[in-house]
Amino acid sequence: MRKIKEVLRLKWAQDLSNRQIAKACGIGRPTVKEYLRRATEAGLGWPLPCGLDEAELERRLFPPPPSLPAQARGVPDWPLVHQQRRHKGVTLFLLWQEYREIHPEGYQYSWFCEHYRAWQGKLDVVMRQDHRAGEKLFVDYAGQTVSVVDRVSGEVREAQVFVAVLGASNYTYAEASWSQGLPDWIGSHQRCFQYLGGVPQIVVPDNLRAGVTKAHRYEPDTNPTYQDMAAHYGIAVLPTRVRRPRDKAKVEAGVLVGERWILAALRHRACFSLAELHAAIREWREKLNARPFKKLPGCRRAQFEALDKPALQPLPVEPYVYAEWKKARVHIDYHVAVDGHYYSVPHALIKKQLDVRITQNTIECFYRGNRVASHRRSHHKGRHTTVEAHMPESHRQAGDWSPERLANWAAQTGPATAKLISTVLTSRKHPQQAYRSCLGILRLGKAYGDEPLEAACRRALTLGSHSYKSIESILKHRLDDKPLADQQELALPEDHDNIRGPSYYH
431: helix, coil or strand? Predict the structure, then answer.
């Protein structure tokens, strides 16, 4: 009552606005408005009448409801209230207002909320959670597996059972797959969305490896492929906390129902293929969704048609293309390796770590979220796929050259030049690595002339120095026409005891 008195004082004595009063008293503006309305209806003003104690003030502001029997007041339809709450934006206050429009002498809001909570507490644990229509899809694998027998060999193989449950309607999807691996995990999601005819806002998976690469209470790392699929469908992935089964109580209950309703029914049925198992699960899945609720009106299918289906987001026009992600570091030759094949990226990214998206037909490379290269996938191991734009300028210029072309150019200058170029080409592990040096040497002929270049190459061969800088230094200091001191070209004797000759081998 003290705060109510302060609201009345500030309004009628100080003439403050509702916003100012709310800020001064630490309450909301609707509350201020409600207090003033009740005071006006009670005929109160400021200052309050003398001798008005707090008990009397409370009685006048909050008069007790008329003494009417429950039937005359109107008891809310709690199952209908529970169902309507699952619609987006529907609150208990709105439902109470609608109830009072039908029953003006009905119960107050506090009684309405209290009795609804009490009624809700009598439902199953999974039903006590508040789920909005089309909001969440809970997904997991059943703890049980199903045996599939090969007709020919008699080999028994265990199949996994994927289960998905919509939060609002409990509409259940189940199917079998050979594993819990990433391709089967993604494929089950795709088929589930097709079955529902739309996608929810949020998918809540467990912390299995295919969905979450690193579990964390606050910031779990979602598998990149799983995140890529979520981006394609426009959904959010919200993994459950580790060792918090209540976070996914809906799917836990769905898995339990699936095991009791579907898997238990198949315990005596032999399946000889995955397709046959699919058909059996489909049959019992439809029976489960059509089974009436025990404590709520309708069934899973009816609730789905009324609640979840209208609220689901539409499916994308193009189906999701399965892709795997890996990290790769750019080699010094500006290529990354994917399954033994090498794909080029811009040369500025040498030694950088990239994210590589791998599909059946394409290879895409991303650096800091930006795509930097895209190639058609090749399965030829040990080969290269190179885009010219990714090469440095010097490499692009050398792309049109070959050892034969360089040798022919050198031969036009002279035998010494041809010999030196041949020596340079053979000195490297790959001839392409020597292209820049050879081009630089040959282009010195344009600056100094072919004859000085030939003489400089002859001198460099004698000295055993075959680099571009050596040839340039000889020409720059005009050493090409100067004799070498004490320079004698060593010649091997034709006859020597250590020389066997061609007759030795016959």
Answer: helix
